[in-house]
Each structure stands twice: as C-alpha cells, then as structure tokens.
Amino acid sequence: MSTPSLLILPGDGIGPEVMTEVARVIEWFGQKRGMAFDLSEDLVGGAAYDAHGVPLADKTMEKAQAVDAVLLGAVGGPNYDTLDFSLKPERGLLRLRKEMDLFANLRPAQCFDALADFSSLKRDVVAGLDIMIVRELTSGVYFGEPRGIFEEGNERVGINTQRYTESEIDRVARAAFELARKRSNRVCSMEKANVMESGVLWREVVTRVQDADYADVALSHMYADAGAMQLCRWPKQFDVIVTDNLFGDLLSDAAAMLTGSLGMLPSASLGAPMANGRPKALYEPVHGSAPDIAGQGKANPIACILSFAMALRYSFDRGEEASRLEAAVERVLAEGKRTPDLLGEEGATPVTTAQMGDAILAALDESL
Ligand code: IPM
Ligand code: MG
Predict the structure, then answer these.
(1) Which listed residue, 9, 67, 219, 355, has the most CB atoms within 10 A of its CB?
(2) Shortest-distance atom of ligand 1 to CA 137
C-alpha cells in the first residue's frame, strides 16, 4: 500500500498548540516505528476565514476528500462571534463532516485510573469506565431544512428541523452494532420517541436492523433525557450508546466530564469506505478551541494525541501501535503529570502543553 496521507488542520485557539504535540508524536512513529505518513497542513475555521474570507476554502475541502485521514484541532473564537452564520468557524467543520459524509462519530469515554478521583463523580462510579458514544453526524437538526430566522407577523421566528431518513438511521445503527461486537456486545439507543416522530422512526429502524442482522447484540432503548440521568447515575451500565446528532453532542460532553476533563476525549468521524478500503475519516478532540487559555501552554494535548491513536486504529489498521500510544498516555498520567485542567489532587506535577508532549514521547521511548 502507498504511504498513508494525513491532512492536518490545526484550526483556532488551542488547536495549533495541541497539534504541535501531535506532530511530535507522529514524527516519533515515523522514526521509531517506521510508519511514514505523507503529511500536509492547511487552515480551517477562523484561521481560514482570516486568510481566505471563508471558514474552509474549496481547495482545502478537495484535499480533505483526497487524503486517507484528516486530523483537526479545534475551531472557533470570540473574534468571529458577530460573523454571519455561514461564515462562522464552526461551519468549516460542519462542511467537512457533511461533504465527506462522516455519518458515524465515535466518542469513547474512558476513565484512566489515575484520574478517577478527579471526576466530579465518586471513584467507584467512574473507575474503569469504558463506554463508546456513536453520534450520528451528518443529519438531524444540524442540517435539516427548513432552517433560518424568518419574519412572521410582527416578530421573527427561528426554525430548525429535526429530520432523519430510514437509511441514515440504518447506517449509523449498523456502525454501532459492529462496534459493540468488538466490545461487550451491548447497544443502548437514545432518542425522544415519546415526543418526536423522528424518535419513533429512529427506534423502529434500530430495532429492525438488530432483528435482521445483529440478533447476537443486546439492544436496549432509552429516552435521551433519562439516558443523560443514567450517564451520571451509573455510567458503567453502558457499552455502546447510539444516538442522533444533537443528543450525541450533549451526551458526549456529559460523558467526557465523567472521565475528569474534556481535555482527555478523542473522537473519530467515519464515513463509507474509499476505493482503497479505508473509511473516509476525520479525527478530532471533543473539546473546543478554549480561546481563554490559548497560547499560554495550558492546554491539555491528550485528547488530540488520543485522536491520532484512533486514526492509527481505524484508518491505518495499526491497533497495536494505537494501544502503545494509549498506554504511554496512561503511564504519564499515572506518574502524576497534569496540565492545569487536571490539577487539584495532592502530589500532582503541573506541566505545560509541551512538557506533557515531552513526557508522552519519553513514555513511548520506554515502550520499545
Ligand atoms: C462538537 C462541537 C461541534 C458540534 C461544534 C464546534 C460545531 O460541539 O464537535 O461536539 O456542535 O458538533
Ligand atoms: Mg459538542
């Protein structure tokens, strides 16, 4: 197979500084594990707007379509708050997701043992937690038409539309069942079938897919509000959660916090297989651009580094190297190294973004 290609889009806020650490990790795998990547870099979000007047240039979109995987930092910032909706940094990310048709967003929430006391929940509730949220990413209320702010009589009305086709539900359900088979074989589907027709259809299609092709996987259903409550009450009851775009956005932030910090969570957004068999793919941390701490060496690079680990696993078929990287992160956390988002316990050693990168590289060296 030809050298795998990777497009790096650092984006805004803390995106560039966490990506600097990921670049060092990528270089390490090149030098020490003989894994060469054909790397390119480009702009997205506010950075792209500043350079080109749009949050994602067409030529960047073309590059993203052509590579084996995209690695993205974060988008957004206060400078862009007053821009027209179509020009906001977030639209750059949404365009990538939509045009690459990345319908399955995998958001694992794993609690590293060293951080179990850092969670806002009690240790026994989160220790050993390992769940996977599969969020539908290319449809639902994020993209449904009609949408907009319209005049109605003597006032305005804001409209968004929740819309799901059977095939959109079918394909994300299959992604969840396939993942469950490699884990603990359980899927919980979340919607609001009690109040939304789209939720009724969601439940029906997920059930049908399971009946037809995944009878070996245990399926349960929950209303998304109850699901949010159960995530806080006893998250270890879940294995794979499959849900729509908006509920997935909310539930994954909540799940992230169970693990101690939003600075820890990676994600993979996967689409249909390309001609070479690899899925279309974009990897990004779940956290945002955190403009309040940008440029101060305070950002936690772990979520972005673990996103690269997911790329190794899901795009490049190097699960053992992904595990090596995850183990290196775990080791550094066990040593007590903490970026400011993780500080608070006794005996922790405060480190900067770059020092966290140094420590992870050292742990990788020791893994050889
Ligand atoms: C996420 C983010 C995005 C979303 C924003 C930045 C558009 O919150 O990836 O969870 O809402 O999907
Ligand atoms: Mg979000």
Answers:
(1) 9
(2) 12
